[in-house]
Design brief:
Helices cover 30% and strands 32% of the residues. The protein has 197 residues and is an alpha+beta fold. It binds coenzyme A.
Length: 197
């Protein structure tokens, strides 16, 4: 369904459709295992609110959200986006959610993180991509470190989930760090053609 916007090795990234909301909201963000370390999932899903947020997102020049699909069968497995894009400072926040849990731990998060960095730096001409991650979210931390994100600092007791407070780690990648990291990515030689002359 839909032409891929960015083609990876095991996944493609395509535009997010309104019809996708049913899947991603009700199957994923009401699943407490998926949202265990996220800001999402604190309140029950509501299709009307999600559609309003979707309409705002697609009409905003500060947000790009893409659907992650399995290249083999076109199954929608998650979403990834660049948010709060600041076109003056050329910064954006990266967020990712793989909602289909059978896809966790198979390198998909790493692949998508790297594709989104290439998209942000080489298509959108960003100079910095940053993110916030709950410190206890080891899979996410590993994914970002592996892709070349650097630690910026730690926010104490920033998130309350699961009956306790968690620290949040702020990480970022600068354009020059991307240029250095990408040649070490297994993925890079396979996707580079989409991003450079
Ligand atoms: C976090 C998330 C994006 C990671 O994606 P993924 O496809 O599962 O991660 P990968 O398979 O690419 O793993 C990357 C590295 O992290 C490690 N890792 C993955 N899950 C792990 C876990 N639960 N504990 C410790 N390490 C883990 C992997 O071993 C791998 O390192 P390696 O290559 O050295 O073996 C995904 O699990 C997810 O979307 N989770 C739910 C939502 C979420 O937490 N989003 C992130 C918010 S900041």
């Amino acid at each position: 369904m839909g032409r891929p916007f960015i083609t990876g090795v095991r996944t493609n990234l395509r535009g997010l459709y309104k019809e996708d909301l049913q899947t991603h909201m009700f199957d994923w963000t009401d699943d407490h295992e998926v949202t265990r370390y996220l800001f999402r999932g604190l309140f029950p899903n509501n299709l009307e609110q999600a559609e309003t947020a979707y309409d705002q997102m697609i009409n905003s020049e500060k947000e790009v959200e893409l659907a992650i699909v399995d290249k083999d069968n076109d199954r929608l497995i998650g979403i990834a986006g660049l948010h709060s894009i600041n076109w003056i400072a050329r910064t954006a926040e990266f967020r990712i959610l793989i909602g289909e849990k059978d896809y966790w731990g198979k390198g998909i998060g790493t692949e998508v993180t790297q594709m989104m960095c290439a998209y942000g730096f080489l298509k959108l001409n960003l100079s910095k991509i940053w993110l916030g991650v709950t410190k206890a979210n080891e899979g996410a931390l590993q994914t970002y470190v592996k892709s070349g994100f650097a630690f910026e600092g730690e926010l104490r007791n920033e998130v309350y989930r699961n009956g306790k407070y968690y620290n949040v780690v702020r990480m970022s990648m600068l354009r020059e760090e991307f240029e250095q990291s990408k040649s070490g990515w297994q993925l890079w030689s396979k996707i580079a053609g989409q991003f450079q002359a």
